[in-house]
Design brief:
The chain is of the alpha/beta class and about 220 residues long. It is about 40% helix and about 25% strand. It has a domain of about 120 residues: CBS-domain (Roll), CATH 3.10.580.10.
């Protein structure tokens, strides 16, 4: 399989003078994680979800710090539907499950107990990057076993700080030491997008904010 066979085309792009919030809305609208940045007809750069996370969530004075919602308990934001995968599942099975569910992490189970977490980053850095056969390597061999978690009674702000400190994108939430949910940096970014959506939609309806283009 070649790069040309799986690449996305045409390219979606956003003018370089648009707000980062606009880029976030475009990515969510089109279900993408990377967006080309253009000046006229020329591609001059690339912005990713990771770049937005660094600005919105990880930055000491990022926009998420200004939201009143971040001081609410995690129960208002977390997802209680926890997607799991058995530790004996192959990396191909893991990748297919993530693609089907459109998520970036799965909790790993053994005999019905959650024993770790496997992320897209694990698949790439611990699997593909080492030329391992994804049809033979098991989830248990690439998962993160020492889980970093947070209590359900803590706030969204606390979760944001912890993810920034530990440089993680997915954070299991516990209640009485049992995992009951999970929160991701994309959930945090969505909080910001929801607050900004009226401005974004108003600009689009008035024609003052261009949509992402194709190149």
């Amino acid at each position: 399989t070649t790069v040309g066979q799986i690449m996305a085309s045409p390219l979606l792009s956003i003018p370089s003078d648009r707000l980062m919030l606009d880029a976030s809305h475009f990515m969510e609208q089109h279900g993408i994680r990377h967006l080309c940045v253009s000046e006229g007809e020329k591609i001059v750069g690339l912005i990713s979800v990771r770049d937005l996370v660094k600005h919105f969530v990880y930055a000491e004075k990022g926009p998420i710090r200004d939201l009143d919602d971040v001081y609410q308990p995690l129960s208002v934001l977390m997802r209680r539907e926890i997607e799991t995968i058995d530790r004996e599942a192959t990396l191909i099975t893991v990748a297919k499950r993530m693609a089907d569910k459109r998520i970036g992490a799965l909790m790993v189970t053994q005999a019905g107990e959650m024993v770790g977490i496997v992320t897209e980053r694990d698949l790439i850095q611990k699997g593909i990057a080492h030329n391992q056969d994804p049809s033979q390597v098991r989830a248990g061999s690439v998962m993160t076993q020492t889980l970093i978690d947070i209590d359900i009674n803590r706030t969204v702000h606390d979760a944001s700080d912890l993810m920034a400190e530990k440089h993680i994108r997915h954070l299991p939430i516990t209640e009485n030491r049992t995992i009951v949910g999970i929160v991701s940096v994309r959930d945090l970014m969505r909080m910001i997008s929801v607050r900004d959506r009226p401005r974004f939609l108003n600009q689009r309806s008035s024609g003052s904010s261009p949509t992402a283009g194709s190149i």
